[in-house]
Specification:
- With 326 residues, the chain is mainly beta.
- 41% of the residues are buried.
- The protein is built from three helices and 28 strands.
- It has a six-stranded mixed sheet, with no helix packed on it. Strands 3-24-23-22-21 form a five-stranded mixed sheet, with no helix packed on it. Strands 4, 25, 26, 27 and 28 form a five-stranded antiparallel sheet that branches.
- A hairpin with a 5-residue loop joins strand 17 and strand 18.
């Protein structure tokens, strides 16, 4: 079923005039629950991460913790903190090969960590799925470069692992799907003016999006058959690039941002809800470009400041009745 929902706020209803042709084709038009602006105000607090050794460069919310990579003198360490930005602790210092960089963190359980790494070689950039123990030692390393079979004129924008250990590798044009043995299953090429990227859904599956004619199409990826399903259309003013989609959590299968705020979408309800209003929350365009939803009521921004270096700000939803953080 094709559903359409908006991401331009208009007094609590979807901005649907551009979606008429989709509706005429028999699609289901979902309502945008924009709500009231007073319910979308967040208060930001800059986090003090001075006790970490290096610069925090990437954040990965997982369950009740926020994991983050810290880079210092050519090497990475993995830290975590709770959702309030407190209880910061060192998880491990990965013992990687020379020239190997951590691309993303894709799993954590029982003191073990799974990361995606890359390493430049004379013939190509190599990609690995690496399992680390709590001491940072490599327990397993799987080279997925050959399975990805990347042409020279294409580049990786994101690599994610789903709930069943299958791999989705997004390029600037398509998504390459590998099974849990890291063998190639196939690829999907969403239709649109340009392919955007992938995210991990609330159910642990992988979703993808593409931009076309003033709207964004979102699909769930069938990781077993390397196909697309559950097509949803989002009408957006500024659909963004490869980081448009954000991993799902809480009540939402995925999040996304446009130039006005942060939105959450539920496939089951077929509805989109605006959660954070950037203007009402005094979020600057620079801060907005790096917003990462942690939950329905917590957002995180990490950006580079020319004067102060990396600045990490935690935004928490304000209680409209009390005028203070919940």
């Amino acid at each position: 079923v094709l559903s359409i929902s908006g991401c331009a706020k208009q007094e609590g209803t979807i901005r649907s005039e551009r979606a008429g042709s989709q509706s005429d084709a028999g699609s289901v038009m979902a309502e945008l629950d924009a709500g009231e602006t007073k319910d979308m105000v967040f208060s930001g607090t800059e986090l003090d991460l001075s006790n970490v050794d290096g610069e925090p460069v990437k954040f990965f919310p997982m369950d009740d913790r926020i994991f983050f990579l810290v880079f210092d003198n050519g090497s990475y360490t993995i830290y975590s903190m709770n959702r309030n930005g407190e209880d910061v602790c060192l998880c491990c210092a990965p013992k990687l090969e020379y020239g190997e960089s951590i691309y993303s963190l894709c799993g954590s359980a029982d003191g073990e960590y799974r990361v995606v790494t890359n390493q430049s070689a004379s013939d190509a950039v190599h990609y690995y799925i690496v399992s680390l123990n709590e001491n940072g030692s490599v327990m397993d390393r799987q080279d997925i470069t050959e399975a990805l079979d990347m042409p020279f004129d294409e580049f990786i924008t994101n690599i994610l692992v789903d709930r069943e250990d299958r791999v989705a590798a997004a390029t600037d044009k398509r998504v390459i799907v590998l099974n849990d043995s890291y063998k190639r299953v196939g690829e999907v090429q969403p239709q649109g003016e340009f392919f955007q990227g992938i995210a991990r859904g609330l159910d642990g599956g992988i979703i993808c999006s593409a931009y076309e004619q003033e709207h964004v199409s979102v699909w769930r990826i069938d990781m077993e058959a390397a196909g697309l399903k559950d097509h949803t259309v989002l009408v957006c003013n500024t659909p963004g690039g490869s980081d448009f989609l954000k991993n799902g959590s809480g009540s939402y299968d995925f999040y996304y941002c446009d130039d006005s705020g942060v939105f959450g979408h539920s496939f089951e309800e077929g509805k989109t809800r605006e959660l954070m209003d950037f203007a009402a929350s005094a979020v600057s365009p620079d801060e907005a470009s790096g917003i990462l939803p942690v939950s329905d009521g917590i957002m995180l921004s990490n950006r580079w400041d020319m004067n102060d270096g990396w600045k990490t700000v935690l935004y928490q939803k304000m209680d409209p009745a009390m005028g203070k953080d919940k």
